[in-house]
Design brief:
The complex is a heterodimer of chains A (230) and B (105). Chain A has 230 residues and is mainly α. Chain A contains 13 helices and no strands. In chain A, helix 2 packs antiparallel against helix 10 and helix 8 runs antiparallel to helix 9. Classes of the chains: A mainly alpha (230), B mainly alpha (105).
Chain lengths: 230, 105
């Protein structure tokens, strides 16, 4: 989908919502850059990770492990585990991304936030616009944030002071809630949440959320009304 | 050390891209029936919900304290009552930040 038609399809409200998430991610990028450099890593490490990996949770984990004296290989494995959830996202949004060459940039721009934005729209055209605008916007803001944070060092190392750690789950929650009004999805989603929480103390980061996919065992697709009537 | 770092970052980048690309690559090869598409959409929602739960309530392998869950709870109530998205997100951050200012962990 060409850029011009992305902007034409996005309504003002949705564009504003996406803009807010981009801004919040930019501030988190600031703290990630600052924490990495503050932890003794050279500036190119957080910046390179942000461009070529572009997955916040795995980047925080990677620099955390390396800055604490761990091996980059261990950090890489931990990062990959956290990112396995993208397989399920990719299966869900492949129509939204589109075919041909678009699959390459479209896959790289996949984040929790723009997947959630896309799932929250009704029509394919809107889903596409939300996914691409969200992905491109977050990529730009995140990377600018990381560079500034890395250069400025210790201005913002703790975004918890601004409550940004609560903003991230709030964003995802607001985006999935409409889908959760449907009971056929709500039950498996709640089971998944419980499973992930129960597994978190015992398993490496990323694995509990994968286990949570077991909640799908409780998924029953809505039956067509006719079938129920007969 | 720098070589090892580059290898770590490089493999993480290629691996992450492959994980992201797997879905689009598979689905452009096969026709996916309607019911399977519903299931895949449900899987994304289920995964995002689990992510909300873990990122709201846990930090590392332990609990996330009080301020963050409280902020997310406020956001959940507002979102359920169909408040505007911006208000939901700002309220979450403001609640958590406000509680921390008062010394709540």
């Amino acid at each position: 989908m060409p850029m011009r038609s992305i902007w034409r399809t996005l309504d003002r409200g949705l564009a504003r919502d996406i803009g807010l998430v981009c801004l919040a991610d930019g501030v988190v990028g600031l703290s990630y850059g600052a924490i990495s450099v503050g932890g003794g890593l050279p500036l190119w490490v957080p910046i390179l990770l942000s461009i070529v990996v572009f997955a916040g949770a795995s980047q925080f984990l990677f620099v955390g492990i390396v800055a604490a004296g761990g091996s980059p290989i261990a950090a890489m494995i931990a990062g990959l585990l956290v990112n396995t959830r993208h397989v399920a996202f990719g299966l869900a949004v492949s129509d939204v991304i589109g075919g041909g060459w678009r699959r390459f940039p479209g896959s790289h721009l996949m984040t929790d936030e723009n997947v959630a934005f896309a799932m929250g729209q009704d029509e394919l055209k809107q889903k596409r616009a939300a996914y691409w605008a969200g992905g491109i916007g977050i990529f730009i803001c995140w990377n600018i944030g990381v560079v500034i944070g890395g250069l400025a060092g210790s201005i913002i190392t703790d975004t918890d002071v601004f409550g940004l750690d609560a903003a991230f789950p709030a964003v995802l929650l607001a985006l999935v809630l409409p889908a959760l009004r449907d009971r056929s999805i709500r039950t498996p989603a709640l089971v998944a949440a419980v499973v992930a929480l129960a597994a978190t103390p015992f398993l490496p980061a990323g694995v509990p959320v994968l286990l949570a996919l077991g909640g799908l065992l409780f998924y029953r697709a809505e039956k067509p009304a006719l079938e129920v009537a007969s | 050390m720098n070589v090892l770092m580059l290898v770590g970052i490089g493999v993480l980048a290629v691996g992450t891209f492959s994980l992201r690309f797997a879905g689009p690559a598979l689905r452009s090869r096969f026709e996916v029936p309607e019911r399977a598409q519903q299931l895949l959409a449900a899987a994304a929602i289920v995964l995002l919900t689990a992510l909300v739960a873990t990122s709201a309530l846990t930090q590392g392998h332990g609990p996330a304290g009080v301020a963050r869950p409280a902020g997310v709870l406020v956001a959940g109530v507002l979102a359920w009552r169909k408040a505007p998205f911006v208000l939901v997100v700002v309220a979450a951050a403001a609640t958590a930040a406000g509680l921390r200012l008062l010394g709540v962990p």
